[in-house]
């Protein structure tokens, strides 16, 4: 597979290592919005850049029929437009707030626990905590937002918030600590006990491997997909 890396930072470099180990060719690695000329020969693009650049990058990629994997978080208000561009250009696109197998299993566990807890939310108060390295630009993390959405879809709770509290709000606490690749904790606390589930990434390797597996999967497809499709989780 001939891959273009759009965003050659911490994740771009981790993804390159895995692509090369799996026998793929990295034909482009840039830290700017690609030009049409640069995209010639790119079969699949993997976009891990910064929140403010993701939309422009994805627009160029999809308008040039490049199949695209996007892991950049913190820009999702324009996801609808990107989905429309994917369909209009008959190409293929996967976004995931987290590409690791472990977190995608954790997303399913979170939904199942939320379904069980819904009738006990008078007794148990929920909270989400996420911890990341100090260079992270967005808060809360994309993964924490996906976890909150999984809980909202399976309970009578109304919304999530970084700073507000209330009976129907899921509070998310975002901590920034040097060198932490990504930790997510969900707690249900009553007067007598706490139920807690957590996922701790030990490095960026799991995110990077998941993005490469998604690129390999989308290579011969058209349409909008998720990691649930790639990993056949449900
Ligand atoms: N979905 C997932 O599984 C994961 C998602 N992420 C997300 O991926 C993103 C990148 O993370 P990470 O690699 O750690 O961040 P880094 O800051 O290490 O890398 C971002 C890179 O993007 C480059 N860049 C700047 N402007 C542009 C542009 N216009 N187009 C393309 N690239 C550009 C930066 O270059 P320069 O330094 O010169 O500005 C930098 O090299 C973040 O949004 C993060 O939240 C991270 C891990 C896993
Ligand atoms: O910025 C990061 O590093 C990470 N970002 C993603 C997120 O916002 O959820 C995924 C992972 O937690 C690492």
TrEMBL record:
<feature type="binding site">
    <location>
        <position position="29"/>
    </location>
    <ligand>
        <name>NADP(+)</name>
    </ligand>
</feature>
<dbReference type="InterPro" id="IPR036291">
    <property type="entry name" value="NAD(P)-bd_dom_sf"/>
</dbReference>
<comment type="similarity">
    <text>Belongs to the DapB family.</text>
</comment>
<feature type="binding site">
    <location>
        <position position="133"/>
    </location>
    <ligand>
        <name>(S)-2,3,4,5-tetrahydrodipicolinate</name>
    </ligand>
</feature>
<dbReference type="GO" id="GO:0008839">
    <property type="term" value="F:4-hydroxy-tetrahydrodipicolinate reductase"/>
</dbReference>
<dbReference type="GO" id="GO:0050661">
    <property type="term" value="F:NADP binding"/>
</dbReference>
<keyword id="KW-0028">Amino-acid biosynthesis</keyword>
<dbReference type="InterPro" id="IPR022663">
    <property type="entry name" value="DapB_C"/>
</dbReference>
<dbReference type="GO" id="GO:0019877">
    <property type="term" value="P:diaminopimelate biosynthetic process"/>
</dbReference>
<feature type="binding site">
    <location>
        <begin position="96"/>
        <end position="99"/>
    </location>
    <ligand>
        <name>NAD(+)</name>
    </ligand>
</feature>
<keyword id="KW-0220">Diaminopimelate biosynthesis</keyword>
<dbReference type="GO" id="GO:0051287">
    <property type="term" value="F:NAD binding"/>
</dbReference>
<feature type="active site" description="Proton donor">
    <location>
        <position position="136"/>
    </location>
</feature>
<dbReference type="InterPro" id="IPR000846">
    <property type="entry name" value="DapB_N"/>
</dbReference>
<dbReference type="Pfam" id="PF05173">
    <property type="entry name" value="DapB_C"/>
</dbReference>
<feature type="binding site">
    <location>
        <begin position="71"/>
        <end position="73"/>
    </location>
    <ligand>
        <name>NAD(+)</name>
    </ligand>
</feature>
<dbReference type="GO" id="GO:0016726">
    <property type="term" value="F:oxidoreductase activity, acting on CH or CH2 groups, NAD or NADP as acceptor"/>
</dbReference>
<keyword id="KW-0520">NAD</keyword>
<keyword id="KW-0521">NADP</keyword>
<keyword id="KW-0560">Oxidoreductase</keyword>
<feature type="domain" description="Dihydrodipicolinate reductase C-terminal">
    <location>
        <begin position="102"/>
        <end position="231"/>
    </location>
</feature>
<comment type="function">
    <text>Catalyzes the conversion of 4-hydroxy-tetrahydrodipicolinate (HTPA) to tetrahydrodipicolinate.</text>
</comment>
<dbReference type="InterPro" id="IPR023940">
    <property type="entry name" value="DHDPR_bac"/>
</dbReference>
<feature type="binding site">
    <location>
        <begin position="142"/>
        <end position="143"/>
    </location>
    <ligand>
        <name>(S)-2,3,4,5-tetrahydrodipicolinate</name>
    </ligand>
</feature>
<feature type="domain" description="Dihydrodipicolinate reductase N-terminal">
    <location>
        <begin position="1"/>
        <end position="99"/>
    </location>
</feature>
<dbReference type="InterPro" id="IPR022664">
    <property type="entry name" value="DapB_N_CS"/>
</dbReference>
<protein>
    <recommendedName>
        <fullName>4-hydroxy-tetrahydrodipicolinate reductase</fullName>
        <ecNumber>1.17.1.8</ecNumber>
    </recommendedName>
</protein>
<dbReference type="GO" id="GO:0005829">
    <property type="term" value="C:cytosol"/>
</dbReference>
<dbReference type="GO" id="GO:0009089">
    <property type="term" value="P:lysine biosynthetic process via diaminopimelate"/>
</dbReference>
<keyword id="KW-0963">Cytoplasm</keyword>
<feature type="active site" description="Proton donor/acceptor">
    <location>
        <position position="132"/>
    </location>
</feature>
<comment type="subunit">
    <text>Homotetramer.</text>
</comment>
<comment type="pathway">
    <text>Amino-acid biosynthesis; L-lysine biosynthesis via DAP pathway; (S)-tetrahydrodipicolinate from L-aspartate: step 4/4.</text>
</comment>
<keyword id="KW-0457">Lysine biosynthesis</keyword>
<dbReference type="Pfam" id="PF01113">
    <property type="entry name" value="DapB_N"/>
</dbReference>
């Amino acid at each position: 597979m001939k891959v273009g890396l759009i965003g050659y930072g911490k994740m771009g470099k981790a993804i390159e290592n895995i692509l090369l180990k799996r026998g793929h060719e990295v034909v482009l690695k840039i830290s700017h919005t690609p030009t049409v000329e640069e995209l010639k020969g790119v079969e699949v693009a993997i976009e891990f850049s910064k929140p403010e650049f993701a939309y422009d990058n994805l627009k160029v990629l999809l308008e040039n029929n490049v199949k695209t994997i996007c892991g950049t978080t913190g820009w999702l208000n324009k996801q609808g437009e990107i989905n429309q561009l994917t369909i209009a250009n008959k190409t293929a696109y996967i976004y995931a707030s987290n590409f690791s197998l472990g977190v995608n299993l954790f997303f399913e566990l979170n939904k199942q626990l939320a379904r069980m807890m819904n009738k006990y939310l008078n007794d148990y108060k929920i909270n989400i905590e996420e911890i990341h390295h100090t260079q992270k630009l967005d808060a809360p993390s994309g993964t924490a937002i996906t976890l909150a959405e999984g809980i909202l879809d399976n309970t009578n709770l109304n919304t999530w918030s970084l700073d507000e509290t209330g009976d129907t709000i899921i509070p998310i606490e975002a901590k920034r600590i040097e060198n932490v690749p990504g930790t997510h904790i969900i707690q249900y606390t009553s007067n007598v006990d706490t139920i807690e589930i957590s996922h701790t990434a030990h490095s960026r390797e799991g995110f990077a491997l998941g993005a490469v597996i998604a690129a390999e999967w989308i290579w011969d497809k058209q349409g909008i997909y998720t990691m649930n499709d790639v990993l056949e989780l449900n």
